[in-house]
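Severity: low
Component: inverse-folding endpoint
Summary: output formatting inconsistent between runs
Steps to reproduce: submit the following structure tokens with default settings.
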């Protein structure tokens, strides 16, 4: 039975065997060819001399018939020897048609995956990468020699998907620096069109310190100047890291949209803080609207709870000269909580101004207040008014007047130090025109 079937299909079986052997030989040859060409693919795609100056080295390269090139130990040093990229392992996929025809360029790469990579990006003030050559020949300045990666006139466009896993990105520009770790990044890059971005990261440091970062959206390269269209979420930011004199370590969360040109982003969003401790003032449930443009961070429509009442205000942080200003108004604050004396019962309205300039070394916190009627122990009063200024951790009060049923009680100064009230001499102006003064040791003569 078997012999008859074999005799009948012998010719077909031989033909199938020959085809199988030929296919195996072709596949083996293609594997051998791709492995042989892996170094050429790497040199032309990853380290194309026209775009990436410096030295790019790799420890190991392999390639598959499908056009995937894997590498280990890739390092890119700039012309000064500084490390720009260091990748323990990664891979990229190329167009087989480009490899077979030898037409390898920036669009040859279709997919890039980098694991545990370190990437150092250096930009100029127009947010252009500094380690990409602008011309193929430094002695020629003709338009045909210019290299342009982005925009409608790009002659070296990229069109590929890029993924980073557990990586570190460090970036700097004039007056700007940041570093982010634990980066998970996915991007469909189209440098002549719209590039989609999805980035999740852990610790963010540099101009501002934050526990985590999330950016989603796109960069539009269809215009001559690329445009932002991104959403941003910074969690547990440390205001002190802005370096503008904000001695605040209480964490803040910022959710915002990023718009505008690549070299001048405009950021609008919301800031939230559960707690904001400014020495003698402790705010809760802080919410404000933020606007960033050209180095200025405006914080408007701020609301918060403080001393049992409410606060409204606005402020500005100048990231360039390391300064800030803030103006606030408080309503219906509990006087006993503010003075750390529960025997004081009244509601207080206040105005508060804060400013500091790290460049000039100046700092000021001051304001004034006015209360309604209340009681101190069992003694009623009609109102309290005065001004105050903070000196370090000491809150000093001036021109304090307490309106009583018999007249006005005033003092030139008293202070709150470590939660304890210290009072200077007390002046009493009676309704009948008489005056008296009390200080240490009792009554004092009034001149």
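Observed output (run 2 of 3):
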């Amino acid at each position: 039975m078997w012999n008859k079937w074999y005799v009948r299909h012998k010719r077909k079986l031989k033909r199938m065997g020959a085809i199988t052997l030929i296919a195996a030989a072709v596949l083996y040859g293609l594997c051998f060819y791709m492995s042989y060409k892996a170094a050429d693919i790497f040199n032309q795609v990853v380290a194309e001399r026209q775009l990436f100056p410096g030295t790019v080295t790799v420890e190991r390269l392999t390639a598959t018939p499908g056009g995937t090139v894997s590498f280990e130990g890739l390092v890119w040093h700039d012309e000064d020897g500084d490390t720009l990229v260091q990748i323990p392992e990664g891979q990229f996929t190329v167009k087989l048609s480009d490899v077979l025809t030898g037409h390898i360029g920036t669009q040859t790469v279709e997919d890039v995956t980098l694991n545990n990579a370190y990437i150092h990006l250096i930009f100029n003030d127009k947010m252009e990468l500094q380690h990409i050559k602008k011309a193929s020949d430094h002695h020629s300045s003709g338009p045909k020699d210019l290299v342009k990666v982005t925009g409608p006139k790009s002659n070296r466009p990229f069109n590929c998907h890029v993924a980073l896993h557990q990586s570190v990105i460090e970036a700097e520009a004039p007056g700007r620096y940041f570093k982010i770790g634990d980066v998970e990044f996915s991007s469909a890059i189209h440098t002549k069109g719209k590039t989609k971005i999805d980035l999740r990261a852990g610790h963010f440091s540099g101009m501002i310190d934050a526990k985590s970062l999330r950016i989603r959206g796109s960069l539009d390269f269809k215009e001559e100047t690329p445009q932002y269209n991104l959403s941003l979420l910074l969690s547990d930011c440390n205001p002190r890291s802005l370096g503008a004199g904000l001695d605040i370590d209480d964490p803040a969360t910022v959710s915002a949209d990023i718009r505008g040109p690549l070299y001048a982003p405009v950021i609008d969003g919301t800031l939230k803080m559960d707690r904001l401790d400014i020495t003698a003032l402790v705010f809760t449930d802080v919410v404000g609207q933020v606007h960033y443009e050209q180095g200025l961070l405006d914080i408007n429509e701020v609301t918060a709870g403080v001393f049992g009442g409410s606060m409204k205000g606005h402020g500005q942080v100048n990231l360039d000269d390391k300064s800030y200003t803030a103006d606030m108004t408080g309503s219906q604050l509990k006087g006993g909580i503010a003075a750390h004396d529960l025997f004081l019962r009244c509601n207080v309205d206040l105005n508060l101004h804060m400013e500091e300039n790290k460049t000039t070394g100046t700092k000021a916190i001051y304001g004034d207040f006015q209360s309604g009627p209340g009681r101190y122990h069992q003694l009623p009063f009609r109102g309290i008014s005065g001004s105050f200024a903070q000196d370090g951790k000491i809150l000093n009060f001036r021109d304090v007047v307490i309106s009583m049923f018999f007249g006005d009680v005033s003092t030139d100064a008293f202070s709150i130090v470590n939660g304890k009230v210290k009072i200077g001499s007390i002046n009493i102006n009676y309704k009948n025109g008489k005056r008296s003064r009390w200080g240490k040791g009792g009554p004092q003569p009034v001149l």
